[in-house]
Automatic annotation (TrEMBL):
Gene3D superfamilies: P-loop containing nucleotide triphosphate hydrolases (3.40.50.300)
Residue ranges crossing the lipid bilayer per the database entry: none
Record-given protein name: ABC transporter domain-containing protein
Record-linked SMART domains: AAA
Residue ranges occupied by any ABC transporter domain in the UniProt entry: 4-215
Species name: Infirmifilum uzonense
The organism's place on the tree of life at top rank: Archaea
Pfam families, per the entry: ABC_tran
Amino acid sequence: MEVVEAVGLGKRFGLDWGLRNVTLSLSEGLHVLMGPNGSGKTTFLKLVVGLLRPTTGYVKVFGLDPRKDFSLLSKKVSFMFEGLPLPWWMSGEEFAELVFSTRESSPMAAELASSLAVKAYWRKLPLAYSSGMKKRLQLTIALGCEAELYVLDEPFTLLDSASLSKVLSAVRELSLKGKTLLVATHFLPEGFMDMASSIIKFHNGMIVEFQRLEAT
C-alpha cells in the first residue's frame, strides 16, 4: 500500500486555485517538496493531514481519507506547519504534555527538548517566545511523536547551526527507521538531499517535476 496517494487533487480558495489536478503516489521514504511561495506545497500538505477539504479529486493516506478518518490517522501522522499558532494560554511545557497525553512520545522527544534547548524556556507562555523558540518547540513535539508519517513545512528556517544539525540528525534517524517524511522547504541544508527518496517540484499549484532518487 502506498503511504500517500492523490488523484486529480485540487483546492480552490475563492476564485483562485491553490492546487490543481495533482496525481501522484508516494511510498516509504523522505520526499522533498520544492517550489516558490504560493506554488501549492503547503496546500498539498494540509490536504494530506486533513486540515483542508479537497475541491476536486481525492487524497488517501495509508488508504484512509484524511478528513473522514482523521481520528484513525491522528495516531499515524505527526505534522508541523510554519506559522501555525501555539495556544497562548498554555506554557510550551503544558502544550507538549497535552499533545503527548494523547499521542505516544518517543525517546527523541526528550533528546530534542534538551539538545534544542527547549527546556530553557518552555515554562513560559508562547507570547514571550521568539520565532526561533517557537520553531524549536514545534519541531520537538512533531518529531517527538511516534508516527508512521511526518509532515514538516519549512522545518529548517529560524534555526542556528547547532539546532539545524540536531534536526537533520532526527530526520535521518526517522528515515533509517523506515518512517515516511514529507518535507516542504526552500532551504536545502548540506547532506539533506542525500537522504531523499524523491523531489517533487511545484509551480502555480501544479507538480511540474517528480524525480525519484536513491537515498544514501
